[in-house]
């Protein structure tokens, strides 16, 4: 029989306001095996932990039950305290009477009864606990960064700077991400390319960084410290090692009518292309959808003109497998599709554009070489209407309920720069609220209003009607003046909401990392662990976790890097001893467990057994590799003969808990 | 297939074609509209007031008798559809309204929004299918540039009507395509024609319907198709001479199916 101590935490009033803690302590005192039972206002405090330690020594406890908050919060704290007092840490069980009891009930007698039941279940389990000893697993000292935008670049540079090798996997032919498409950056108005491209070059030149551009992650296996990742290197039909980036192929390519995605389709590129002048790596890529040689086998001009002999029409997708200790997700965002917001006539008029398109129209490397011209007729617009919150803070179901966070600032930037460059232009901004928290942000917005005379109007645009004369009739409401407004605009710019990249969802499945309903990755703790995913060894950088501007993205990228460095600095990680174990006598070698194991931890062996009739038999049985097993328990459910069991969560322990609850 | 059918007053007086061609086409497409034995005016705009109970009762009565017949309830007039569908939603979701309406009516079995309300267009799209209609068209309206005019009542409020996206609808355009004509998309297709305001201040509805016609003309529309008698009235009454005929979509359907007497 175990000698069990029970400790009830008040958690201030978090538990004690709804649960009669004294009554719980009293009731649990009479459970079999319980030799000590008490309550304390803050069990996790130094003094509270000392009560546990003292009781372990004074009462020679062999098991401990703490009735407190979720084990996710303080299980480690109490295990450590028990270990200090000389008790095996896996002899500690937590009964969650806060999240699963006091916080969700209002009625005191009901909550108290439930807390007692949860305590009894934990006591029943501790009776069957056995000491467990953690092993160790090595750490592969290499990191993977998925996504090569500013978030991924910064994370990779910081990790590489600490001396660890890091690989960047980017789906586009070049790293740089959305920031390469921006013109100026708020609030200081420095040019995006000027501050980004040196970092891109640093990545290319850093010997610790390897860039897999035009590549995708297709499979992830393993666990923290030991991930095995399959990377698909898409065929770019150009040998990266030979191409010098001279660009002669792009000039000679006869297929010049391919919509240029870098300029959001506002001009064309050739079928063989380099996305932009400062691309990294600066090598050409052939677009198989549009290349005549690849589609019809006729042309071959680029191969003829390439002096480096880099063109290779026979190149195939290549799959490589790499080992990593840590993975950073930096998959970024995209503006939403505006099909559901046709009141703004985005699909009906070329002169209704998104803010990202506006960036290209004002960028010196853009389709108009930086002169702001209307896409429809190439004329200067004289009246421009900016519409904020297109799809953001939208409860109609067509858009996103969240605030996209960056739109207020970039719209102020667009409005200000337009007035600066073209003072004869009338600029209107329609807003629900102007949200400018951030260093020097509100001052920036005030400057747009006060110094540059941008007309900020509180209210939304209800309808945009393209007119026969090429203008856009904008109908809106001015909520402060309580008036209907009709503005004839030459150009309308929509601040479209941003959403996570479409690749994020399948990637989260591969990583077993959790996401919220908007497909943003969830952090391990919203306040205290903002750059870690709840999945160990997976870290978050940039807008894949939530809308962010560049300064915030860069800080988060650095934070993620420091967490990765902290992990890679360790030579070994302590393994979770709660792993699966197969009873060889019961195992019939059916392979059911092997098929469901997501970590590849189960193998089979032909083993010799002495049978009861004194003969020898060779039987096929399952063997669990304890260093690889993560203790998910899938195999214990799949096993038809009941041979597979999880240490610390054995079938008999779970049944004992259920019995205690149902009694 | 049989549906309970609520025509509404206007379809018995000013908008007889909307009704007649709908019934004719329904038979040709393999479904029957069974007019409810006793129905009253839906009450126009009055039932939209949250504190109105009495004016909602006619809708509840129609909805309950469709339920008793075990049929979905089909409507045609945009206004009737809007009122009946909104009342049905209230009966499902607003305890206060459901309680009071049931207390008034004293039905044999209380009504709590069990009936499914379908607009005739939804029957065409979801029950018959536009592809099926296209196959049955004997007289495709080739070369006709037709603009869909939704008005405001057919689609809004979007969460209750749930027919199509209120800001970027496609159901009427898909219908126009199915009968062989060319749909022309124009910005004002889901704006208000002026509605009942025409009774009090015709100048406002002249301005509103004028803006719709103007934009349609600009966009190359040669004919407008609508489901709403009031929209048709306001657009046709517009004195500014836009020269765009406005017709009921059911009339076009009957024509395409070769059911319209003297049709080409």
TrEMBL record, chain A:
Keywords: 4Fe-4S, FAD, Flavoprotein, Iron, Iron-sulfur, Metal-binding, Oxidoreductase. GO terms for molecular function: 4 iron, 4 sulfur cluster binding; metal ion binding; oxidoreductase activity. InterPro entries: 4Fe4S_Fe-S-bd (IPR017896), 4Fe4S_Fe_S_CS (IPR017900), FAD/NAD-bd_sf (IPR036188), HdrA-like (IPR039650). Its cofactor is FAD. Residues 234-263, 282-316, 577-607, 620-649 form the 4Fe-4S ferredoxin-type domain. Belongs to the HdrA family. This is CoB--CoM heterodisulfide reductase iron-sulfur subunit A family protein. It comes from Guopingia tenuis.
Automatic annotation (TrEMBL), chain B:
Gene3D superfamilies: 1.20.1050.140. Keywords: Oxidoreductase. It holds the Pfam family CCG. The keyword Oxidoreductase applies. GO terms for molecular function: oxidoreductase activity. Residues 4-85, 148-235 form the Cysteine-rich domain. The keyword Oxidoreductase applies. It comes from the Bacteria. This is CoB--CoM heterodisulfide reductase iron-sulfur subunit B family protein.
